[in-house]
What does this fold into?
Amino acid sequence: MTFSRLVRYFGENQCILKGRAVHARITTSGFHLDVYTNNHLVSMYLKFNLFDDAWNLFDRMTERNMVSYTTLISGFSHMGLSEEALLGLRLMVFDGFDPNQFTYAAAISACTSLGAVKIGKEIHGRIYRMEEELGYVVNNCLINFYGKCGLLKSARSVFDKILEPNIISWTSMFTVYCQSGEDMKGLKLFAESRKVGIEVNEFSCASAFGAYASLENLKGGIQLHSLVFRCGVGLDQFVITSLIKFYTRCGELDSARQVFLEIDNPNLSAYNALIGGCIQLGNPREAIELFYKLHSLGLKPNDRTFSSLFGAIVDMVEIEVGKQTQSLILKFGFMSCTFVGNAILDFYSNFGLLEESMRCFEEIDRPDTVSWNTLMTGRIKTGHHTEAIGYLENMLIEGFEPNNCTYSIILNISGDLPSIQWGKQTHCRILKPGFNSDVVIGSALIDMYSKCGRLNDARKVFDCLISKNLVTWNTIIIGYAQHGFGKEALEIYNFMQQEGIKPNDITFIGVLSACGHMGLLEEGLSYFHSMFRDHGISPRMDHLGCLVSLLSRKGQTERAYEFIRCFNEQVDKVVWRCLLSGCKTNKDFSLGKYAAEKILSIDPDDTSAHVMLSNIFAEAKMWEETAQVRKIMKEKALKKD
It folds into this structure.
């Protein structure tokens, strides 16, 4: 057996030690290696990700051919060393060798990884000038390159020029559309591929399920579910994972569970998909149980498992479970991973455990902008705005670029303080990179201007936003309602209805508050009943408080009490205070006394309840009771404001 065949054999059979031994033996014996043997040695080192060894050997080669360069460039590209792969291509051209289809494919893949649009276009131009016909390998790489770089028209142009696209061409173009958010175009192309006889595969099915999920097209996804099983790819783990994600995205957790249960041995991806779906659909307990199950079966969790799990722990308010999970993360060595570290950081920040969150931040090897954002958000939630501002300054000093979430945080600080000047400066900073069209930033700007009492500026931002989501509509409605502009709040709600935007529970807090400010009793009652009847939203404590306040202000304290009595939860003291205030105004002393007693049963040290109860007794000329309340106040060392 020749040296070249021996080296090739060891490379293909994962025998790096024997391969090195042969290389050493050749070197020490003084045997001159021909270009073919050297090429096999370079290929062997690259297969084992031994970059330095491959490069040093290549650099010492006195003779090189096209295969030498192609092997090096392909190996670097496959290893993710994209810049080195493109350097290899430049050296190849400089040395007078013409790249072949495989060289070009590797170089284009490197451009895709780097997002190097200009270089990729230059390579495409060179191929066009030098090659009579592009092969499938290069064409498919070009479709992927243009698609990943957001140049969908160029990707489609390459696809359309292929005389007979193969299954990879169709799948690449279809996937590019779906990954770029063009789900309808992607599904249309998927249907065309079926008409010309292209068989479905696991990759096209996964992309199709992703597109149906994004569109929340349950019917289309169910039809595809039937198709994949008829075509024999239904049991592929890649397809199964996509199918679970599709059903959970469409709110069909039972169907997702059924798919999961039909697998003999679900892999980690399937577990991760169902865990994520359970959290998304409000079943954190089931998510935690699934984690325990996969761990008991010996499956090793990955970074996505742990980051999803912390979402469930936050929802369950399980601090101890979170700390135990962090210990497990340390055991598996994921603590330094930025993705996981950010999830733990968010967990501690949500519970106001600021020291723990800071320790977690310091343990992340490479904190990113998300890490800084999470750290600042935790401080804002607990009212530590000065610390949040300090972290913002540190983040900028260390060279991190703010993203849309960072600007939202700054605007939240501006609104909470409030600081209109800082808010305006941030608004100007947002305009430069074009973040002002972002719906998240737009909503944060509206909230900031509303909190600072600048409703006209808030409305200008609202009107200029091209894209508005539910948060945007809610923010402007609540902003108007909180400042007593009930008419404007209800007008916005009517516009929202005309646009077909479905309201949520937050929307109705703003609407009912607006009715309260304007004294619109019948309209308020109508909106309250519409909330459940037309939109399926169960009234919360905040909604009850708004309605009780409205009824009490209009003198209908008994009717307000009936709503409280019929409420299916334990009513908090805020609602009772709304009733008590109305009773005092309308001199309903009996019910007022009852409301005050209810407040004091919840919070015996409530100062204002004692004061209002004393005033009610005094106005009713119940002097003994007044003296008794004031005696209690004195004993508790409470002061009447």
